[in-house]
Known about the structure:
The structure holds 2 protein chains of 2 kinds. Chain A is built from 6 helices and 11 strands.
Amino acid sequence: MKILVPVKRVVDYNVKVRVKSDQTGVELSGVKMAMNPFDEIAVEEAVRLKEKGVVTEIIAVSVGITASQETIRTALAMGADRGILVETEASPEPLAVAKILKALADREQPGLIILGKQAIDDDMNATGQMLAALLGWPQGTFASKVDIEDGTATVKREVDGGLETVALTMPAIITADLRLNEPRYASLPNIMKARKKPIDVVKPADLGVDPAPRLSTLKVVEPPKRQAGKKVKSVAELVDKLRNEAKVI
Amino acid sequence: MQVYSAPLRDMRFVLHELHDSAGHLEAIGRTDLNGELIDSILEEAAKFAQEVLLPINMSGDEEGCRYENGVVRTPRGFKEAYDMFRENGWGALSSPAEFGGQDLPEILSKMVEEMQCSANLSFGLYPGLTHGAVLAMLDHASEELKARYLPKMIDGTWSGTMNLTEAHCGTDLGLLRTRAVPQADGSYRLTGTKIFISAGEHDLTENIIHLVLARLPDAPKGVKGISLFVVPKFLPTDDGRPGQRNGVTCAGIEHKMGLKGSATCQLVFEDATGWLVGEVNKGLTGMFTMMNAERLSVGIQGLGVAETAYQSAAAYAKDRLQGRSLAGAKYPEKAADPIIVHPDVRRSLMTIRAYVEGCRALAGWVAKALDLETKATDPELRQQSEDFVALMTPVVKALFTDLSFEMSSMAVQIYGGHGYIRDHGIEQLVRDARITMIYEGANGIQALDLVGRKLPSHMGRLMRGFFHPVQQFIEDNASDPNVLPLAKAFGALQQATAHIAQAGMKDPEEAGAAATDYLRLLGLVALGYMWARTAKIANEKLPAANGDAGFYKAKLSTAQFFNDRLLPQAGALWGAIKAGKASMMALEDAAF
Ligand SMILES: Cc1cc2nc3c(=O)[nH]c(=O)nc-3n(C[C@H](O)[C@H](O)[C@H](O)COP(=O)(O)OP(=O)(O)OC[C@H]3O[C@@H](n4cnc5c(N)ncnc54)[C@H](O)[C@@H]3O)c2cc1C
């Protein structure tokens, strides 16, 4: 069984992001980039499935600029077998990415696609779900445990009330939550080997997808500074402030 | 808290921008590598250092190693970290592919070492010693010994040690007493006691391979009668497993100022079986080939610790609120300003920063030469590089480690009393840094090596190999006012060199009296040259730097600080050197 793992290049989670002075987005030049942490968990899960003998080939896919190859290399160093870069200058929205992934799924015929539950740059939490809809496959989102047996993926999902277990008939979509696993460190020999693994480069147009954004960003601003708290002398004053200043009651 | 996140941006600057990694890889015939690969290795090494080694640095210091009945236990977490280190292949970084290594260049591997030493110096010693032992065997051991030991040492299954020191014999190896008696089967039996042996006994690996200096029964006295042996803790079976226990035992470990996670062992050899490495009575040559690399590594240890001192102190200075800026409150909404507003705190931070980044740049230059001396396709370049490594080895060792101690002490000062107590782990850095000035040849000995051996070597050829590029740079940039301080310091160095050559020829004590100051003077000029080149690059790149502008601006300010505040010490050092030995040697021994 093949498995497809989409990986996104995002600002490293350690970096304190800054808004560009023209308010068109966040500053990316000279900023450390890395693989979206949830995608790292997805790659790790795929590698573990391969080590268990459930999966035979892991394909890491990234949609983005040329530099996204480095993100694919990271996946290859962790244990993915080959990569596909869908190269585009645009920063594509979830629907475009889902369409691209659908086209690749049609071509590669994987038994499973594991994505991160969301990307930490835009926090959309949408690509996996959209892809499931486009493919007409079952989905197990926010996975904290995955078992594959006899063509069924049993997925423990982290939902508000606790854990929900679903059984998916494969092929299926899974999105990884934080507790699914702890990604490994890439070993030095594997980093070296990753250089020799193939990365295919295609364009969205080759897959029949137009990645142009459907949304336009009006303006990006820093969150407002938190105001200092105020001390009140009595309950009456508190109620008054809540009613008249904060207007919440 | 010790704060450390690998200075990857600066490392990339040193590698790619200052030292032209692309050209370097070509010069050593490694076009199969590229900058991106190097960056990805650095990133993974950084993760390992930050997430695996740093969290067990303070706890390892607190707990230390334990000794019981000949067995040594490393602090909690060391074994797990070592297993991960081994599984991830970090020990194989720069070792030759023939024995399972990755054969990566030193210019990269020295940076990986720096990260490991920043995060946990004590831990770094275990693989560090193994690497030293591997280097000595690579150059001098028989093919059979290499095949038997190297693959397991390079993949980290077995570790290595270096056994030089005995109770009565530290610097002066000529006094060494451990004996080796030849056996009919070609092996030797070793008997004697070694002290201060790092990683001499521990629980990290299934076997420990000791490299031991000893004398044959008929050996000449002094350093010309010393041979090198490989003595495994367990004699390897033919299928490469640890077999019978050899006659070497650990009689105890030292209780020491710092470096507490590293076991410093007393080793007793009683008819221990060993095999000769290299030629009889030429053991020191075997040790000295690897010594260059190891001394550079100890310099890197110093740099690593100083980096952590810097990052920790910088974080603290931004956080600690005391007093108000002399220019009026800068953070009026807070109860007081963070201490980073105070000029004196900044003086300390800038000093640490300027030295640390300067040393990293210089380490890159020397590591490059370390690659080139063996791998350059051009034989002339190989020779030049060998000269340069030989000259700079004592400088890097002594300068970086002296500074490491001074800088980590400065970091304690920034923390005030909170640095002196143990909670923040800053005083640990001072204690850890202190040993780097002593082992692998005490720093005073490094200075003597520079002045007594390297300066006069080949009628000053080594020295000229350093003077030429600096002089050329100064001439090429004569119109740049920022190069003036370098030119001045370089002038002082030239005069001091001529003075020592003359005075030292007549009276070796004069050279000895000047040695330490001279080493610092040469080090300052080397750092000044690195900063001048750094500033030049920063100026060129700044206009198109966009988001990276802050990096280059900081480089320019730090270069300026180095020129303004640190490089002028060159003049004082030259003054001290010029004064000669008289006042130093005046008192009778009994007057002390
Ligand atoms: C934690 C630790 C780990 C160590 N690890 C190892 C190890 O793994 N293997 C190993 O073999 N050894 C090891 N050592 C030993 C270390 O290398 C020696 O301590 C060092 O070489 C200095 O020797 P010494 O202590 O006998 O000092 P001495 O040789 O007695 O020197 C004392 C002082 O006198 C000065 N001095 C001595 N001779 C001269 C001279 N001719 N001219 C000018 N000044 C001189 C020195 O610079 C020094 O300042 C370790 C030591 C420690 C503390």
